[in-house]
Design goal:
Order of helices and strands: EEHHHEEHEHEHHEEHHHEE
Distance between the termini: 44 Å
GO molecular function: methyltransferase activity
Pfam families: Methyltransf_11 (PF08241)
Number of helices: 10
Keywords: Methyltransferase, Transferase
Strand content: 15-25%
Protein name: Methyltransferase domain-containing protein
InterPro entries: Methyltransf_11 (IPR013216), SAM-dependent_MTases_sf (IPR029063)
Largest sheet: 6 strands, mixed
CATH superfamily: Vaccinia Virus protein VP39
Number of strands: 10
Radius of gyration: 18 Å
CATH architecture: 3-Layer(aba) Sandwich
């Protein structure tokens, strides 16, 4: 399946940039990808006492409550349209070319976005350029993505995620300065519906809307995805999933692939 047919000059028909078409998969996104307060605390600690923060690849505005003044940047028109009324409108721009002066903000942040960018190094250099202080990046470690039980059922989906997420070392090298990497525990009732958020609630992944809100599913042929979902549904009905993974239903947190990368100028 050709997922780049509606891309022109690095932008898609709805304005989104990168490898995923948020004009299609972003519909209904906010119903499934609601920011989780426990994850937000990690981001808030990373940006510290910053008063002004730029949120790059801001989507519908997740995790923007971390600072008194946040400037959002989002190239997808469909995602900008889903921003709630209490948030300021997002600037239509891409990470690789931020329309701000050097050192314009106290800090910069991005969540679940770097794997969408057409040029990772350029986007990270831009974040470093416009931020006087910390740069905080919520992402997934590709080396850990396939450790999740979903790989038994949807291998091409997690292969896609592992391929798209940049190596943590590449992020650190591009940002420079003093870099730290913190694992972010995923709560069992996580409100931000990325794939691992359903580690203890596998039934949620039978919902087409939940899968659509995780962009990696859009890179796999629909017929193949249907086979994956059917197999998971069968194992849930038969109890086979619970025989292998049922202990996760009682586990309050998962230490999975979710990490927070923080860089401050050296």
């Amino acid at each position: 399946m050709d997922h780049t047919s509606n891309v022109t000059g690095g932008r898609r028909s709805d304005g989104s940039a990168g490898d995923a078409d948020y004009g299609t998969i972003g519909l209904g996104y906010t119903g499934y990808r609601r920011p989780d307060d426990r994850i937000a605390r990690f981001i808030a600690e990373a940006v510290g006492d910053a008063q002004t923060v730029v949120n790059v690849g801001a989507g519908a505005g997740a995790y923007e409550s971390v600072a008194p003044q946040v400037t959002a940047v989002e190239p997808s028109a469909s995602m900008r349209a889903q921003r709630p009324a209490h948030l300021s409108p997002a600037v239509d721009a891409v990470a690789e070319d931020l329309p701000f002066a050097d050192d314009a903000f106290d800090a910069a942040m991005t969540t679940f976005s770097v794997h969408q960018w057409s040029d990772l190094k350029a986007g990270l250099r831009e974040m470093r350029r416009v931020a006087r202080g910390p740069v905080a990046i919520l992402t997934c470690d590709p080396d850990l993505v396939r450790d999740f039980w979903l790989y038994e059922y949807a291998p091409l989906v997690l292969d896609t995620e592992a391929r798209r997420y940049p190596a943590i070392g590449d992020i650190a090298d591009a940002l420079g300065g003093e870099v730290s990497v913190r694992p972010v525990p995923i709560p069992a009732d996580c409100t931000d519906g990325f794939n691992e958020a359903y580690y203890a609630r596998p039934e949620r992944l039978l919902d087409p809307g939940a899968r659509q809100a995780c962009s990696a599913w859009s890179f796999v042929e629909p017929g193949v995805c249907e086979q994956y979902v059917e197999r998971l549904a069968n194992d849930l009905r038969s109890g086979a999933w619970d025989e292998r993974h049922g202990a996760l239903r009682r586990q309050p947190y998962l230490n999975g692939s979710l990490v927070l990368v923080r860089a401050v100028p050296g």
